[in-house]
């Protein structure tokens, strides 16, 4: 980190709680909003508010970008904008979410119309959004003029985006009685090894965002498994992120169940959770290991590890959310912790661009897709239940990899460490960028 500024505390709960009160395939080439409609004037209207007017901005679509042709009609004969994303949810029970967030958040409206039912964010997403856009400058200028330090300003920028996005998805949240329509925001990645700090940060974020449909993201590190239990027990809904192995996933489920049981709440219906199980990064690492082994058997298993492990994760999900313990919680209104497929963009251009979406379709799951995966699936994805269509094959692939010397737990720990490190670097890089912005605006003295 540059030494041009001092962070009062790496824990946002400590640095901000007294200041805020509730009131792959070259992603750079992808347009910000990938869903175009034949009649964009439907969305080019102004939304009045007490302080300002927001114009819904539909960016210019690049050559070859997907345009949804909305030719279907509803029961009354009026036009209905329908895509395979609607079928994904209505026919197979999987919620399609969008893995991106930036200003103006009203760019999400066409995506919502296309069937997107939630949004996920992370430090890397905000690093890209804030550092590459001037849309944050006015608010940032005001914050620095008010004397906010750089990290405090960062959190206020993030909180505003999350609040605005939550408002857009609130109708879905209400229609599903808290089953869907969530927007996720992650605690500081600097807290990945800090159990108590994570609990405090999660409670703080939940309080300042102050929206019923916000998910607080907590990494599934060993230190944060107890944090998940405590935060759930406090009645806060959680998106558990950076899950790379079955062992760690089972610990996450147990933390959720333990938290529900420890909450003391008579009505558990509004405490929900998703478990973000990462897929494409698993293949990226294991493929390299298989290529190093180099045998025909090893090379034949490339591109199969991630989906196989995900299929077994779904089996574990079905097992854990059944039986006497779970049924006792259901009587209090508890909802299953849905599996969420994360890291669904294809890293290897030789693989099909829907590799981490199409084979993982099943009820009570979520698929969060970045631009390229979302566009690909809407364009040529097929909707059918696939997650448990060939469980024996998944078990065979998993076992075959073990026989070749692949240690699944070691793979999970390595990917977890790399994921935490990547988010920390994005977080630090963004704080450096904000400091440079402050300096360029001549708002702070060095």
Summarize the structure.
This protein is of the alpha/beta class and 446 residues long.
Describe the structure in your own words.
- This protein is α/β, with parallel strands linked by helices and 446 residues long.
- The protein has one domain: TIM Barrel, CATH 3.20.20.70.
- The protein has helices spanning 12-16, 84-92, 108-113, 123-131, 137-145, 150-175, 195-209, 225-233, 246-262, 280-293, 296-300, 305-320, 324-330, 371-380, 391-403, 408-440, and strands spanning 46-48, 53-55, 94-98, 183-186, 214-219, 238-243, 273-278, 338-342, 365-369.
- Strands 3-9-8-7-6-5-4 form a 7-stranded parallel sheet. Strands 1-2 form a two-stranded antiparallel ribbon.
- Helix 8 (225-233) links the parallel strand 5 and strand 6 (238-243).
- The longest helix has 33 residues, at 408-440.
- The radius of gyration is 22 Å and the shape is globular.
- The model is unreliable at 1-80 (pLDDT under 50).
- Pathway: Carbohydrate degradation; pentose phosphate pathway.
- Its main location: cytoplasm.
- Residues 15-31 have a biased composition (Low complexity).
- This is Transaldolase.
- Residues 1-14 have a biased composition (Polar residues).
């Amino acid at each position: 980190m540059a030494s041009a500024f001092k962070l009062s505390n790496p824990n946002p709960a400590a640095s901000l709680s007294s200041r805020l009160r509730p009131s792959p395939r070259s992603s750079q080439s992808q347009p910000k909003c990938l869903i175009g409609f034949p009649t964009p004037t439907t969305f080019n209207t102004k939304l009045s508010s007490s302080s300002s007017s927001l114009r819904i901005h539909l960016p210019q679509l690049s050559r070859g970008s997907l345009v949804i042709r909305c030719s279907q009609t509803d029961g009354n004969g009026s036009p209905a904008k329908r895509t395979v994303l609607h079928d994904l949810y209505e026919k197979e029970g999987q919620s399609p979410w969008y893995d991106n967030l930036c200003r103006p958040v009203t760019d999400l409206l066409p995506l919502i119309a296309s069937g997107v039912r939630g949004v996920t964010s992370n430090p890397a997403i905000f690093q890209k959004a804030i550092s590459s856009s001037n849309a944050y400058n006015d608010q940032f200028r005001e914050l620095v003029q008010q004397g906010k330090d750089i990290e405090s300003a960062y959190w206020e920028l993030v909180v505003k985006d999350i609040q605005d996005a939550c408002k857009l998805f609130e109708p879905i949240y209400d229609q599903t009685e808290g089953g869907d329509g969530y927007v996720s925001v992650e605690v500081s990645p600097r807290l990945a090894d800090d159990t108590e700090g994570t609990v405090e940060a999660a409670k703080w974020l939940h309080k300042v965002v102050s929206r019923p449909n916000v998910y607080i993201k907590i990494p599934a590190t060993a230190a944060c498994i107890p944090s998940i239990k405590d935060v759930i027990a406090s009645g806060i809904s959680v998106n558990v992120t950076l899950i790379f192995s079955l062992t760690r996933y089972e610990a996450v489920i147990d933390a959720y169940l333990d938290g529900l049981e420890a909450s003391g709440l008579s009505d558990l219906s509004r405490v929900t959770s998703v478990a973000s199980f990462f897929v494409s990064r698993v293949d990226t690492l294991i493929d390299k290991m298989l290529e190093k082994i180099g045998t025909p058997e090893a090379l034949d298993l490339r591109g199969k590890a991630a989906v196989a492990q995900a299929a077994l994760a779904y089996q574990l999900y079905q097992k854990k959310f059944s039986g006497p313990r779970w049924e006792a919680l259901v009587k209090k209104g508890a909802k299953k912790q849905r599996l969420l497929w994360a890291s669904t963009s294809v890293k290897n251009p030789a693989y099909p661009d829907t590799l981490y979406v199409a084979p993982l379709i099943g009820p009570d799951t979520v698929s969060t897709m970045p631009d390229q995966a979302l566009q690909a699936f809407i364009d040529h994805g097929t909707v059918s239940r696939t997650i448990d269509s060939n469980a024996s094959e998944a078990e065979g692939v998993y076992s075959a990899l073990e026989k070749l010397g692949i240690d699944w737990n070691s793979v999970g720990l390595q990917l977890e460490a790399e994921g935490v490190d990547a988010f920390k670097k994005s977080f630090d890089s963004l704080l450096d960028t904000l400091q440079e912005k402050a300096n360029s605006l001549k708002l702070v003295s060095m």
